[in-house]
Amino acid sequence: MKEETLNRIKPYYQTGDPSHDWNHIRRVVNTCYKFGKALGADLEVLIPAAYLHDVVSIPKNSDERSQASQMAANLAAKILEEEGLSKSVIEKICQVIKEHSFSSGLKATSLEAQILQDADRLDAMGAIGVMRWNTCGTLMKASYYHADDPWGVDRKLDDRHYSLDHFETKLLRLKEMLNTEPAKKEGEKRNQFFLTFLSSLRDELNQS
């Protein structure tokens, strides 16, 4: 994408949420470019979608969260129209944006959507995933864990109020939801980091 276009996009990611800032976008774009080249994806569709996939960001605990990718696609269409892209290309980009989101529950119907899904999900895993997980819980004013039952053995999981619950409700499920072989390979490594982190946390909580 043109430098002036990127400069137009950047302010949308200055929201005070480091889990969805410009650095997140750069990581996702870089992963999309790497996987896209390896798998023969249409980079003219994939890369703009990666840059614009979170151009509208809705808090995780908002009732509108499932609509975030549709809102992002709508705004992306306006931005891309002003940049002079053809209607057919814009429609493809926006479809990829709509389908990428975990919260939307949509299936990725193209290689480009599969790759963006994978790149976004990988960024929620591993060491950077732990950093983003902590940010998400903090922004929602959630406790780190339930004082009497940290692991949700005898209670219903509630990741809006207890951050640790988010591993069971989402993060540990991501490995099985990856689409492409490069993502699955990387996902194994990042999921192992999760397991190591949780094991260490369990040991520390058992000592306290």
Written overview of the protein:
59% of the residues lie in helices and 0% in strands. The protein contains nine helices and no strands. The protein has helices at 3-9, 22-39, 43-52, 68-82, 87-100, 111-122, 126-139, 165-169, 181-207. The protein is globular and about 60 Å long. It starts with a helix and ends with a helix. The model has no long low-confidence stretch (mean pLDDT 93).
Short characterization:
The protein is mostly helical and 208 residues long.
Offer a few descriptive terms.
208 residues, mainly alpha, globular
List the SSEs and their pairings:
Blueprint: H1 3-9, H2 22-39, H3 43-52, H4 68-82, H5 87-100, H6 111-122, H7 126-139, H8 165-169, H9 181-207
Low-confidence stretches: none
Fraction of residues in H or I helices: 55-70%
Report the order of strands and helices. Answer: HHHHHHHHH
Could you tell me the mean pLDDT? 93
Largest β sheet strand count, sense and barrel closure = none
- What is the terminal separation in angstroms? 51 Å
Radius of gyration: 18 Å
Q: Provide a count of the helices.
A: 9
Oligomer: single chain
Number of strands: 0
What spatial form do the alpha-carbon principal axes imply? globular
SSE-based structural type:
mainly alpha
